[in-house]
């Protein structure tokens, strides 16, 4: 009989893995936390350009709308208080718009706030397979040996930023054992589009990017490959999903008819509205030789208010910050994030078909699913707080 059997094996020391470990740190359960890379919280450290957008300040109703398949977590929005959690862990937060950051603006402080000193942590231990005996899940195979546990929770993330450890290898392993996945798309990803590459490094504030179903407003950044910045990154997933033609409105606060009047009466109007380099670029399309009103209106519609991103695409999945899609939620119980067919298998965070736009939603998903699993494990072992 094996002596070294853990009560729980956590695969992945990212956001949801750390949350589970923290919540079970003082339970006296025998817990193993396996991390494939040489450090914990790698992707957390990258979040928000190193500032770590910890969460959104949205209400439960707003969270449900902002998160893809957000209804799955409906009860969790009301049950768990993330602000209280971080306050208890001595991590002061500050708010910018609807986003909450550590007051220090250091992602490292977020990683360091988790209490996991009673957890057995093994870095550079990459899970390569699951172990089943008598059709029951009982352990994992790693590059540094096999480990056995009464429960396994996979917190390995999606298929983006493979250097962070989220290389998608667990997707393949889980599929081998019948776990069903939805189609995968890159999310929070920049666009590849040639029209503006000569403007690389230039940003424009207050633009709108839209298709027939949705729109995003804010700033964009032209790159040597296309378009980045918050607005483009927010639209990236829906470009990848081929949701429809994408347009940019470079002056969303201007009505088309009034804009025509301003341009007609003032030849310098657009020069006052745009950065010099963009103005020079866009005016290449302005009709020449005493243009008619019709020609100017056409320019306004096609190049200012509805600039069509013809043949636009996104950077590859490995360049996206978030994976859209994942384990089908039809296979997962919202009560405990346990797989409905494989006993003692739990799945969390970005591995699931749960994600949101930029703004702390994906970390909110990770924290909440981690909390759900931790409570489920406590209940299973009869631990009352």
Fold and architecture overview:
The protein is built from 13 helices and 23 strands. The longest helix is centred in the C-terminal third of the chain and has 20 residues, at 361-380. Helix 1 runs parallel beside helix 13 (361-380) and helix 9 packs across helix 12. By secondary structure, it is of the alpha+beta class. Helix content is 30%, strand content 22%.
- Please list the strands of the largest sheet in the order they lie side by side: 19-18-15-16-17-14-20
CATH topology of the largest domain, what is it called?
FAD/NAD(P)-binding domain
| Approximate strand percentage | 15-25%
* Silhouette: elongated
CATH superfamily of the largest domain: FAD/NAD(P)-binding domain
Which structural class do the helices and strands define?
A: alpha+beta
Overall mean pLDDT: 95
Biggest sheet, open or closed, and with what strands and sense?
Answer: 7 strands, antiparallel
The low-confidence parts are: none
User: Total strand count, please?
Assistant: 23
Q: What's the number of structural domains? A: 2
- Kindly, what is the distance between the CA atoms of the first and last residues, rounded to a whole number of angstroms? 32 Å
Measured as a percent range, the helix fraction is 25-40%
- Tally of helical runs: 13
CATH architecture of the largest domain: 3-Layer(bba) Sandwich
Radius of gyration: 24 Å
Class of the largest domain in CATH? Alpha Beta
């Amino acid at each position: 009989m094996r002596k070294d059997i853990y009560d729980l094996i956590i695969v992945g020391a990212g956001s949801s893995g750390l949350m589970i470990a923290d919540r079970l740190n003082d339970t006296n359960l025998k817990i193993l936390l396996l991390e494939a890379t040489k450090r914990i919280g790698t992707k957390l450290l990258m979040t928000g350009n190193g500032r770590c957008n910890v969460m959104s300040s949205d209400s439960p109703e707003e969270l449900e709308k902002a998160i893809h398949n957000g209804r799955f977590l409906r009860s969790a929005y009301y049950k768990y208080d993330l602000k209280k959690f971080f306050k208890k862990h001595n991590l002061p937060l500050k708010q910018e718009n609807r986003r909450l950051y550590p007051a220090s603006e250091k992602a490292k402080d977020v990683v360091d706030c988790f209490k996991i000193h009673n957890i057995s942590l093994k870095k550079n231990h990459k899970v390569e397979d699951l172990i089943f005996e008598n059709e029951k899940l009982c352990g994992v195979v790693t590059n540094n040996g096999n480990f056995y546990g009464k429960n396994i929770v996979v917190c390995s993330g999606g298929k983006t930023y493979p250097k962070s450890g989220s290389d998608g290898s667990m997707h393949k392993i889980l599929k081998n054992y019948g776990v069903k996945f939805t189609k995968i798309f890159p999310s929070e990803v920049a666009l590849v589009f040639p029209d503006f590459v000569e403007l690389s490094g230039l940003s424009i504030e207050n633009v709108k990017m839209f298709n027939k179903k949705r729109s995003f407003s804010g700033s964009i950044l032209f790159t040597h490959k296309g378009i980045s910045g918050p607005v483009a990154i927010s639209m990236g997933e829906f470009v990848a999903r081929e949701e429809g033609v994408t347009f940019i409105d470079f002056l969303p606060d201007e009505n088309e008819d009034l804009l025509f009047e301003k341009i007609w009466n003032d030849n310098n109007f657009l020069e006052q509205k745009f950065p010099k380099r963009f103005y020079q670029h866009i005016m290449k399309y302005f009709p020449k030789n005493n243009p008619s009103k019709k020609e100017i209106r056409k320019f306004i519609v096609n190049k200012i208010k509805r600039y069509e991103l013809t043949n636009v695409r996104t950077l590859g999945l490995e360049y996206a910050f978030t994976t859209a899609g994942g384990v089908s939620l039809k296979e997962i119980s919202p009560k405990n994030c346990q797989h409905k067919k494989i006993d003692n298998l739990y799945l969390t965070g970005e591995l699931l078909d749960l994600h949101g736009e930029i703004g702390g939603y994906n970390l909110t998903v990770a924290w909440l699913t981690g909390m759900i699993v931790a409570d489920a494990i406590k209940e299973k072992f009869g631990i009352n707080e």
